[in-house]
Amino acid sequence: MQPKITYRRITIFVIAVIIPVIATMLQLWLMHFIPHTTWLLLYPAVFISAWLGGVWGGIVASIFAALLGVYFFIPPFHSFQLSDPNYAYSIVLFIVMGVFFGLIFEKLKRSENALQKLAAIQIKSDQERLAMVLASSQAGLWEWSLADNRVTWSDTLRKLYGLDMTTPSSYDNWLATIYAEDQASVEQELLDAVNKGHEFSLEWRVANRPENQQQWLMSNGKPVRDKKDNILFYRGIVLDITQRRRQELAISNSEREFRLLADAMPQIVWIADTNGLNTFFNQQWVDYTGLSFEESFGHGWNIPFHPEDQQLAWEAWQKAVHSHAVYSRECRLRRFDGEYRWWLIRGVPIKNEEGQIGKWFGTCTDIHDLKLTQASLKKSENRYRQLFEANPLPLWIYDTETLAFLDVNVAAIANYGYSRNEFLAMTITDIDQQKVVDLEKKADDGASSMSNVQLDGKTVVCRQRRKDGGYFWAELTGHHLPLEESPAAIVLARDLTEQRQVEQKLQDSEARW
After folding, report:
1. How far apart are CA 417 and CA 432, in angstroms?
2. More confident residue, 311 or 20
3. C-alpha 160: how far from chain center
4. What are phi and psi of 3, to 5 degrees?
5. Spatial separation of the C-alpha atoms in residues 268 and 293, rounded to whole Å
6. Is 119 contained in some domain?
7. Which of these, 442, 456, 446, 402, lies nearest to 424 by C-alpha position?
8. Which helix (H) or strand (E) holds 270?
9. pLDDT at residue number 287
């Protein structure tokens, strides 16, 4: 270590002597043109020596330059004697300034060296951190000079390529690491980008990997240009995207399975985003409406709606989207041949763990036949109601298990005197007087009550009670009704009061004769 320091000091002293000598020679030549130039070039000589040699360079240069100045430029010339003592002040000031600048430049030198060392440490630290990041993130850096086709790789890149650390970095070696089926397309894409001077992003499979351990890499490259915009080289990064590709494949398979499942369903299946814009329909939508997927996405779903349903369906959907409520509506949709059919359309918001809607999932179910059946049933019910209510004889329906009235017509209300609500709160035993005659047996006594007789297809005679307490004989004919809710029967009641009076008069007349 000591010899190096000695050699450096000798070099500083030599420079501190040579520079003032050169400055003196130039100044002697300038004296022919510019007289009285005592320190004209000697000051810069000292500054330069101080900058190059630090404090010792400044001191040596100041003293040696002062001697040269006294000898050549202060009268009497070519002598170290001073003709005027005042020249001493100038000499002292010159030496002090030289030493001062030497100290300043030495300080600057040390600061610069400290900064360089700090920068070197920072660069080394950054390089170490970069190496750690590249290793942990499974990435590598490369640089490709187009002029000489020289390629530089980071150590981590060889590991990604599956190469030995001693394998030289080159274009051909890189190309050989690409899966055979990917080589042509990857190289063509790369060359196209380079020929156009564009950035590029390449993805490929690594060669020599087992089929079940396939590895995917991605490289992004960017051209570096000179001041004339000529490309000097390409620089980029290589990333291991195997996990991402596996996830993409899993998502793709999941989407394909969902598509197959959705297309296999007899219903129309649809998906909308958080804003209510449709992003998915299954094949049933296209087959039914005749619209393409592109026509249907977004707000296109509203196109095939019946003109009377279109605006109502739109408003209901917007309300559901803004209130995050379930959407459910029965609407008519136009088929591809122009026919409208009824559909039940339902949409349910799918929320994440934070309660935010990620998408809407919905179905359209064909209910046209059901609507026609309901309309036909309603029509039949209306006809039944008209016949039931318009019958001049009392009619009622009752539950055969509980004997409770289920319905009565107007004639029953008028004949018995009870209101409809009163009837519905009663059972048939409330109007039965325990007198029943089976007309088939032609007997007036000894039969059971109406509640104990199975009326299905039979006719019985019972004594009935009105609300006012009066009684009358009635002929009851009943039939079971096949209701799903409960077993029931319908009963027709014919008032026998006048008939029995006529029969009584006939019997009295026959008795007299």
Report:
1. 15
2. 311
3. 31
4. -60, -35
5. 13
6. no
7. 402
8. strand 268-272
9. 93
